[in-house]
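Incident log, support desk, overnight shift.

02:14 A customer reports that sequence design results differ from what the structure should imply. Their input is reproduced verbatim below. On-call engineer (initials T.W.) acknowledged and began investigating.
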């Protein structure tokens, strides 16, 4: 169960005595889809080391913003094993999924050359094979054709995947004496991706998805599903129903369709089947995308970054909700500062009056001028404020500072400790997802965070 997470400001140093203490909400997030097993978080880009391994910094920044749980996506044998290792390295913070992504499913095909347990993303081979599958279509790549399924190979793959899952469950360590932390929290990432048939043909993707669904359904103790569906809705739903029944009534632990970019109708059908919807930066690209997000019910919502992919960009429709949020936050901060200044001025006047009365009582020869000067410096200080605010407002008009970065962002060539790398999305940006969803739906960030937290804990049990 989700516990209310409120942070009461004690008001010791700044809040005047006559103002009641304010209750501010401290957001908490679970990133349900973060590809931390990608070598990019170790400083490796396309097979080359570009900067020091800063994975700990990435996890540290996530925790700093309140993203205290990370579900690391396994999308191939290698990334699933690496995700499980990370879960051991960061117990109670990192959890793992295990499965074979549609874009890594060419391991099932007769033309595949390497052993299925060797590389990360299989479709391309070479340098890009190191990285987890990126989000979105790539029209520059040719579509694979006539890439059939190798059934003998498939049997071996599925045996190995079943073993991997069994092993992960039996090796699970405990974080505390009374709460077993299941490191493996979901079956996946798997599904269908018809936008990226250049990594794997439709025929092989369908086989990969169906075979993994069969394994998922046959587990004595089922796992929740972490699903991927792109431009393949009808086949996606059909295969799920074939494995778990027309209402998915045999799907015991539920599941999430992550990185959702489909239509409102598709989303309603998935929610109707009891599935959850994962929202990340890719879900805010267009006006239509944002209209779909508006219709995602709070009790079906999960949020994610899908880093290193899917960052929210200024060109995305969703960006304007971040700008709106900043404008509102700034106005609120200014109003609070003005109110505090008014209270301080009042207190200062009262103190000056008291001092004057005291001075008059103890020194009958005191001149009015001396008392006047004692008040002035304070007034001058206060008068500076509107000017500072104007300068700040001018700065904010610049496009690039519309939405300030919480951490410094540098190019990978200029990597420095504590900075984010430009173009490499990471889990600390999840606060943007929550703000945009809140803006689109017209609800508070607190409602979004608490709903997503509760849904995620309910399905994946990451807060036991
Ligand atoms: Zn995906």
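02:41 Re-run completed on a clean worker. Output:
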């Amino acid at each position: 169960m989700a516990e209310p997470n409120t942070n009461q400001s004690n008001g010791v140093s700044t809040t005047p005595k006559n103002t009641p203490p304010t209750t501010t909400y401290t957001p908490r997030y679970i990133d349900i889809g973060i590809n931390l097993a990608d070598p990019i978080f170790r400083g490796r880009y396309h097979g080359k080391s570009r900067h020091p391994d800063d994975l700990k910094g990435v996890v540290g920044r996530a925790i700093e913003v309140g993203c205290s749980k990370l579900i690391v996506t396994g999308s191939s044998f290698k990334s699933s094993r690496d995700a499980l290792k990370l879960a051991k390295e960061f117990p109670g913070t990192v959890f793992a999924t295990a499965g074979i992504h549609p874009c890594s499913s060419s391991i099932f095909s007769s033309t595949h050359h390497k052993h299925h347990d060797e590389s990360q993303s299989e479709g391309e081979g070479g340098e890009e094979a190191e990285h987890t599958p990126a989000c979105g279509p790539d029209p520059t790549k040719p579509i694979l054709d006539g890439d059939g399924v190798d059934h003998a190979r498939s049997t071996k793959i599925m045996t190995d995947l079943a073993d991997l899952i069994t092993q992960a469950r039996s090796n699970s360590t405990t974080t505390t004496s009374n709460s077993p932390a299941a490191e493996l929290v979901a079956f996946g990432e798997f599904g269908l991706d018809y936008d990226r048939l250049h990594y794997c043909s439709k025929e092989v993707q369908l086989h990969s998805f169906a075979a993994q669904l069969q394994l998922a359904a046959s587990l004595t103790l089922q796992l929740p599903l972490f699903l991927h569906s792109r431009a393949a809705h009808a086949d996606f739903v059909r295969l799920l129903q074939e494995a778990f029944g027309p209402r998915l009534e045999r799907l015991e632990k539920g599941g999430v369709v992550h990185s959702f970019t489909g239509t409102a109708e598709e989303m309603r059908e998935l929610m109707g089947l009891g599935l959850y919807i994962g929202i990340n930066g890719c879900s805010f690209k267009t006006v239509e995308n944002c209209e779909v997000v508006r219709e995602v019910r709070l009790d079906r919502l999960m949020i994610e970054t899908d880093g290193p992919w899917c960052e929210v960009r200024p060109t995305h429709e969703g960006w304007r909700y971040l700008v709106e949020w900043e404008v509102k936050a700034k106005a609120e901060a200014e109003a609070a500062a003005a109110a505090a200044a008014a209270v301080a001025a009042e207190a200062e006047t009262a103190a000056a009056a008291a001092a004057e009365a005291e001075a008059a009582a103890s020194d009958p020869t005191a001149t009015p001028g001396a008392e006047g000067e004692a008040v002035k410096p304070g007034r001058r200080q206060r008068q500076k404020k509107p000017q500072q605010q104007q300068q700040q407002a001018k700065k904010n008009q610049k496009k690039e500072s519309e939405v300030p970065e919480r951490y410094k962002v540098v190019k990978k060539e200029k990597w420095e400790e504590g900075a984010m790398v430009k173009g490499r999305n990471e889990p600390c940006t999840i606060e943007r997802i929550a703000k945009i969803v809140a803006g689109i739906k017209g609800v508070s960030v607190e409602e979004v965070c608490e709903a997503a937290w509760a849904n995620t804990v309910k399905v994946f049990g990451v807060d036991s």
